[in-house]
Amino acid sequence: MATRRGDWSRLDETDVRVRPGKGSRPRSKRRPEHADAVSGMVVGKDRGRWTCAVDRDPGHLIVAMRARELGRTPVVIGDQVDLVGDTSGAPDTLARIVRVGERASVLRRTADDTDTFERVVVANAEQLLIVCALADPPPRTGFIDRCLVAAFAGGLEPVLCLTKADLADPADLLASYAELDLPAVVTRSDMDPGELRARLNDRVSALVGHSGVGKSTLVNRLVPDADRAIGRVSGVGKGRHTSTSAVALPLPDGGWVVDTPGIRSFGLAHIKPDDIVAAFEEFVAPAEECPSGCGHLGPPEDPDCYLDTTVEEGAATPGRLTSLRRLLASRGTDD
After folding, report:
1. Domain boundary among 259, 294, 309
2. 20 to 30 A Cα–Cα from 76, which one of 10, 31, 48, 168?
């Protein structure tokens, strides 16, 4: 029976249709499974687009955007991702990143030691190559120490790479890191970096270093067509790889090197003392006996630090403790 205009007494709430606003519509938290997704490694980024190597194959590069369901999930160089859509890699095609895999390692830094915002530089790298010139410019041990701290805290194996050995003797610098059992490779401008090439083979390695230490020269020698490879990896749209972004480049004999931008400072605001101690197995248990808030630097900063007892009991060498404390102190200096 039709209701006459103005006769509202016959109506109840079941007769009223309310159109929900955009903010009140229910949203499902379930994400699509994408069982047909293919796996890839992120090797470049430019302007909200990521270049991915399908199954780590440098010959199968595709450009992808982040799927809406990922929201603001960060995607960085080295991430293992799942991709759907057009994964052919044909020109002007675009796939979607629908999942980001769990990271086995992360290289993080902050802008400085007062910055609370962590920046993930590289994910899933197996080793961190700390490139340092022996001369022109002179080596900066404070920077090396900070990179070691970041590597230990992030789960990467650090490797010291000393360049320009034709200009200075590496003996003194190598001796200062002897107690850390740190792998080291020495290169010269007049010799092929064969030893370094063998260490990088079939692995994912990140390279860090100050501008001018010879990092770009090394990359060009390790990846003969590096300029062309960079263009393929990060020449998305009108973009182009610059010194402000990282890029992963395939090695001719297998493996990848991640060329990071020249870094002036390596902030460690996100790293706690116990993150560093964790890399020194013999000091992990003794550190648990230290008072709360102990920085493990020893007297006078931390007079009740228990790590000295470990050395006194012969469970660790004085050199190892000195090296550990030097790394701990590096959180406050970048010299």
Report:
1. 259
2. 31
